[in-house]
Inverse folding.
């Protein structure tokens, strides 16, 4: 039985469908499936996506295609032509467009997504894409609720908006203050993909710089794939445990992915590729995402082949050299 | 301060907002662009040397290394440079929920007479019209910062009586207590709207009110660019044009690539008065 098949959805009185928050179902899943032993979870991006992303899954990626996001894993999902994904679309400029163009995503809980170009309106008009409305922090709060094993979370925003009307949120009388308050359903994604700067082979991971919700996302999701710029020895993790923000307990797969956030930036490691950023935005605007995907995804076998054939060492070195700030990042 | 003789209307808008920045206060700004520049300008020129800002990726009081690459206004080493803390989106929202954020500054697509903000959909949601990206962090800012400053263009299609879709809350339907009844924190809400041509506040009964216009325009010209007519203050002030001192910092330290001014029209002093050039002139 697949994760998606085990998952239930609810429809509220406004007719809005949302993923049913079910902490006990998550606990039961965690009891059976989350690996307690320290065993290596190192695998290729192809094996990780094949094993852990199923058609129909609710997918959350942390950050996005252009900012320390799991860009190589997003491309692999597209390459493997996954279908009917429900996407947590917060703080994202490009990835949702790629997933919709490729026929991978059919639903999106919106915080913010880059909306340029005709791909979204066309998919919505043809009934291939359904939006639900939240906000960026509304989505990260839902993940926080999942990460603390709860079924809902109080939210001091979203109330009174039209987004609220098209969300799974509701207003209740706070049992302690008596005041009306918005509560959001916890989000337990089926699968999360997260790019980190450093991890060991078990999935103990470090993230440097500002971020969105990597720790909450890793804990709330049933299946978790990390891609990491660099593998570090577990002895190094033990030497500075305060830096660990994602524990091995949460993680199912670790993919070694230098330049895994390309064309995005990865703080402390490399700058974004501004030309590529312009190229993908132009592809969205001019309705040429099909060509974009052919060049950057379908015509190459994996991320290292894409970097070798489509980007090249000179460019990669340039991007490393352009990331000049050292303060706060690993040496 | 010396009044500048040639500048872009968007540069003027940032200067207007910079002059509103209060020293010793905290700001949650939309990453990059006018809102962030306004706080940095106020810090560097000395209007508010101890104002601090955060962005929704949890950059807490950064001293950014400008300029940024395209889109890299958040979750990038330059945007988060020399911050006092690196947090996450939930950290930013927590600080606002706790009442630690005095002001939010936002760009917006469409604003209405009660200060409601649309960044989701123009037309009839969900099928008939044009889809935009959604509220992003703006809903958290507009709901939980004590006061919200909006930056937008002075165009009829942007100043409407009722936004097509409330993405982020203003005073909602304008009735007293509407925000609190919807679950939002008490005592918060819209405070100013700033455009290149004008500045607005809100009346006691929570309606948009025109309080000032730019030196090169008139109340009548501003009203032509409002689909609904706002309340007009008894005394409509004239906004001082940007100063050379402001523009020097703005152009050499902040928007060094001129990204603000590659759209919008230019204003020049012709020896007698300020004149607005055609767009792109």
């Amino acid at each position: 039985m697949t994760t998606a098949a085990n998952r239930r959805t609810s429809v509220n009185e406004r007719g809005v469908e949302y993923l049913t928050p079910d902490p006990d179902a998550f606990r039961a899943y965690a009891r059976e499936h989350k690996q307690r032993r320290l065993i290596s979870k190192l695998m290729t991006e192809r094996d990780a996506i094949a094993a852990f992303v199923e058609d129909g899954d609710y997918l959350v990626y942390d950050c996005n295609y252009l900012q320390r996001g799991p860009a190589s894993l997003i491309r692999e999902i597209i390459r493997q032509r996954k279908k009917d994904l429900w996407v947590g679309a917060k703080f994202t400029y490009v990835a949702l467009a790629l997933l919709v163009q490729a026929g991978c995503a059919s639903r999106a809980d919106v915080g913010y997504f880059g909306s340029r170009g005709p791909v979204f309106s066309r998919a919505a008009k043809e009934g291939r894409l359904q939006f639900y409305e939240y906000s960026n922090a509304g989505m990260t709060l839902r993940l926080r609720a999942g990460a603390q094993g709860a079924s809902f979370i109080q939210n001091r925003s979203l109330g009174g908006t039209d987004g609220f009307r098209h969300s799974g949120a509701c207003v209740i009388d706070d049992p302690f203050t008596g005041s009306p308050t918005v509560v959001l359903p916890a989000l337990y994604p089926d699968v999360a993909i997260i790019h980190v700067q450093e991890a060991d082979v078990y999935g103990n991971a470090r993230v440097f710089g500002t971020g969105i919700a990597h720790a909450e996302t890793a804990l709330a999701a049933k299946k978790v794939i990390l891609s990491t710029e660099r593998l570090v020895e577990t002895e190094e993790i033990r030497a500075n445990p305060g830096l660990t923000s994602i524990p091995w307990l949460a993680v199912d797969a670790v993919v070694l992915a230098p330049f895994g956030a390309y064309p995005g930036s990865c703080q402390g490691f490399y700058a974004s590729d501004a030309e590529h950023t312009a190229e993908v935005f132009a592809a969205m605007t001019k309705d040429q995402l099909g060509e974009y995907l052919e060049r950057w995804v379908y015509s190459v076998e994996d991320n290292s082949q894409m970097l070798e054939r489509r980007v090249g060492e000179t460019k990669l070195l340039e991007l490393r050299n352009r990331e000049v700030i050292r303060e706060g990042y690993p040496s | 301060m010396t009044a500048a003789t040639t500048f872009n209307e968007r540069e003027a808008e940032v200067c207007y907002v910079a002059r509103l920045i209060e020293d010793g206060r905290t700001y949650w700004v939309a990453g990059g662009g006018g809102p962030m520049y306004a706080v940095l300008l106020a810090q560097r020129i000395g209007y508010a040397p101890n104002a601090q800002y955060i962005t929704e990726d949890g950059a807490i009081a950064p001293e950014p290394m400008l300029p940024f690459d395209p889109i890299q206004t958040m979750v990038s080493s330059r945007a988060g440079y020399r911050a006092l803390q690196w947090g996450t989106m939930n950290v930013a929202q927590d600080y606002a929920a706790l009442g630690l954020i005095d002001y939010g500054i936002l760009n917006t697509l469409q604003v209405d007479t009660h200060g409601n903000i649309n960044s989701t959909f123009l037309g009839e949601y969900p099928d008939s019209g044009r889809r935009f990206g959604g509220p992003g962090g703006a809903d958290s800012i507009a709901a939980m910062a004590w006061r919200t400053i909006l930056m937008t263009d002075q165009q009829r299609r942007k100043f409407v009586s009722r936004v097509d879709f409330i993405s982020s809350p203003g005073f909602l339907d304008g009735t007293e207590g509407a925000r609190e009844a919807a679950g939002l924190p008490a005592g918060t809400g819209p405070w100013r709207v700033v455009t290149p041509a004008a500045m607005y506040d809100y009346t006691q009964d929570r309606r948009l009110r025109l309080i000032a216009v730019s030196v090169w325009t008139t109340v009548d010209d501003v009203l032509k660019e409002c689909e609904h007519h706002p309340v007009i203050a008894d005394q409509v002030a004239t906004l001082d044009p940007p100063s050379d001192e402001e523009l020097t910092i703005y152009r050499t330290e902040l928007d060094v690539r001129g990204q603000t001014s590659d759209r919008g029209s230019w204003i020049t002093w012709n020896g007698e008065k300020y004149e607005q050039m055609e767009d792109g002139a």
